[in-house]
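re: the backbone from monday

yeah here it is again, tokenized this time
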């Protein structure tokens, strides 16, 4: 199953909530993303069917290996974009918003060059 924009956002959110709270439930995702519980249920079903996550008997969400890799990749992409924008002088709040929009469209080649730019910038400090 190809992972679309919403799916990546959900996986990133699940990963962040898991790291913060230790476990994640659908309600946590709904509150964090400011979406309805039915919307979360629908997306969770697609992510389960795609092999990105499972739910245990207590309705806790668990990322599969594939889901964790996709979530970490999406989070890394976001971090690189945001860091690059901040390094170019964009204020952090705007960089956060723009990175969210850009992360779904940036090519791997551009992302790699942005990562190199950030590394060079950090090395010159």
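seq for it, each position gets an aa:
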């Amino acid at each position: 199953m190809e992972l679309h924009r919403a799916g990546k956002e959900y996986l990133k959110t699940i990963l962040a909530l898991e790291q913060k709270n230790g476990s994640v439930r659908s309600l946590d995702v709904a509150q964090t993303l400011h979406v309805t519980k039915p919307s979360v249920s629908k997306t969770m079903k697609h992510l389960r069917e795609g092999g990105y996550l499972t739910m245990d008997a207590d309705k806790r969400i668990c990322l599969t290996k594939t889901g964790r890799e996709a979530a970490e990749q999406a989070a890394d992409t976001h971090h690189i974009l945001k860091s690059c924008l901040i390094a170019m002088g964009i204020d952090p709040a705007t960089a956060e918003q723009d990175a969210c929009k850009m992360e779904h469209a940036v090519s791997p080649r551009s992302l790699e060059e942005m990562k190199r730019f950030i590394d060079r910038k950090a090395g010159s400090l």
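The chain has two domains: 5-70, 73-123. The longest helix spans residues 65-87.
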